[in-house]
Design brief:
With 479 residues, this protein is an alpha/beta fold. The protein is built from 16 helices and 18 strands.
């Protein structure tokens, strides 16, 4: 059977792109390097348009948020619980600071209003910085008008907040170290930056997009499993793409690791931009300046994942160890110089009788030595010991698995283990994602498009890049 399109990668964005292409009348083959699907939950917000267009609810989509959505561990004291209910969280915060509890509802409302602006931006392909067409200009003008109609305060927040550090924002609002620490950790998740770094306030707002006011952690869902079970798309596993074939400047198909060639006039890659354009495409087809820009996409993997066995109920669904902004900043100081943090930030969640901990900061590139078995073992023991010290009643749990950034790179095929396919920093969002001038899913090679998290709207927006990419693809194929 011949195919109209090949999609590289059976992640959420690849599968959304594939199903959208099928609904556009194309015959699609998805090529996935892994032998089996990752059965762990998908973390991130699913845009309502993705759910609606693909009918995911009626096919069994389940989205869950723990409540409290986070338990902030406080050394030597009762933890701080933050709930989906704003007033309940405020009451919890008042135990530590009456003033902070009083400010909490206003803070939640302000951040939520700002997140809604980005939510609208994320629902469509990125705005064109060189827009000249009436439709593009009207779209940008309408967005500006919506913000302006929300009042002077909304305009100031949009212009002032994203470039700030999340540490500075929190210092202006609150005084409680534990509250500021757990919120600051959200602003640096998957970034090789500290909470005192400029632009981390944007990352904090980005994490809040699609969430209810007062909830600053994304939900978990089974969206990947649901998409894989939908009819209409052929998925071939154990099919690692090593090259994209190009003829006369146009994509012509792919080559698999075993040497097999598969032809198709359209190739859509859900792999990260650096892996796609630097690893799968012959550099002779690409302009040197374009290649230079792609090489400089920041993919500094800095998160490790440690799985612990839990033979009893741990007493939480999600717990964060980030006692203060300064604690998180000191953890970053280690990573900045190529060292694994001696006191890392940890966010752990309960998952199928185990505890899965994301550890920030553990850099991909070490200043001394390599990620060998001894270093992985030491990190796992550090995480188990740190959680035991800070979470009452948890105890010292056995380490089941340690995935350092190179392991995440090998398992998921993401450059340097950067799960967002590129850091969500101000210079790598909107019309600059993945690189300036090439933000609308196209590449310099006709018939080759990108649809992964390395494109707009980025990591943590499940299916958003895939849906937006196919809107561009199908429109261009009709013209």
């Amino acid at each position: 059977m011949s195919h109209d399109a090949l999609v590289i990668g059976a992640g959420v964005n690849g599968l959304v792109a594939a199903h959208c292409l099928v609904r556009g009348g194309r015959r699609v083959l998805v090529l996935e390097r892994a032998a089996e699907a990752d059965r762990s939950g998908d973390v991130g917000w699913i845009p309502p348009a993705v759910v609606r267009d693909l009918g995911l609810r009626r096919h069994g989509l389940k989205v869950s948020r723990p409540d409290p959505w986070i338990v902030a561990a406080i050394p030597g004291a009762r933890p701080l619980d933050l709930y989906a209910d704003i007033e309940r969280s405020a009451e919890s915060i008042r135990r530590l600071s009456p003033a902070d509890g009083a400010r909490w509802p206003d803070f939640c409302a302000r951040v939520h209003r700002l997140a809604r602006v980005f939510e609208r931006l994320y629902a469509a392909p990125p705005p064109d910085a060189d827009a000249r067409g009436l439709r593009d200009l009207l779209g940008l003008a309408a967005l500006g008008l919506r913000v302006r109609m929300r009042g002077r305060e909304a305009v100031i927040d949009l212009l002032r907040t994203p470039p700030m550090s999340i540490g500075q924002v929190l210092d202006e609002w609150f005084e409680t170290p534990a509250l500021k620490g757990v919120l600051a950790a959200t602003g640096v998740a998957h970034l090789c930056l500290g909470p005192r770094s400029g632009g981390t306030a944007f990352a904090f707002v980005h994490q809040h997009v699609g969430s209810p006011a007062g909830v600053f952690r994304p939900p978990v869902s089974n969206v990947g499993a649901v998409l894989a079970g939908l009819p209409g798309v052929e998925i071939r596993r154990n099919a690692e793409v090593v090259a994209i074939t190009v003829r006369d400047g146009r994509a012509a198909g792919v080559v698999l690791a075993g040497g097999e060639e598969i032809a198709a006039p359209l190739v859509v890659s859900g792999a990260d931009p650096r892996r796609t354009l630097l690893g799968m495409v012959d550099a002779a087809w690409l302009d040197p300046e374009f290649l230079r820009a792609v090489r400089h996409v920041k993919c500094r993997g800095v998160v490790a994942r440690v799985t612990l066995d839990a033979d009893r109920e741990p007493g939480f669904e999600a717990v964060a160890l980030a006692p203060s902004v300064d604690y998180v900043e000191r953890a970053y100081d280690d990573a900045k110089y190529g060292r694994v943090s001696a006191q890392p930030g940890i966010e752990a969640r309960r998952e199928n009788g185990r505890i899965v901990a994301d550890v920030q900061y553990a850099p991909y590139a070490l200043a001394e030595g390599v990620w060998d078995a001894a270093r992985r073992r030491a990190l796992g023991e550090l995480v188990a010991r740190t959680l035991a010290e800070h979470v009452p009643g948890l105890g010292l749990l056995p380490v089941r698995e340690v995935l350092a950034p190179p392991d995440l790179e090998a398992r998921y095929g993401v450059t340097e283990g950067q799960l967002h396919h590129g850091e969500m920093t101000l210079d790598q969002i909107l019309f600059m994602r993945p690189v300036a001038g090439w933000s609308r899913y196209r590449t310099p090679i006709a018939g080759l498009y990108l649809c992964g998290a390395g494109t707009h709207p980025g990591g943590g927006i499940l299916g958003g890049p895939g849906r937006n990419a196919t809107r561009v693809i199908l429109k261009e194929m009709r013209t």
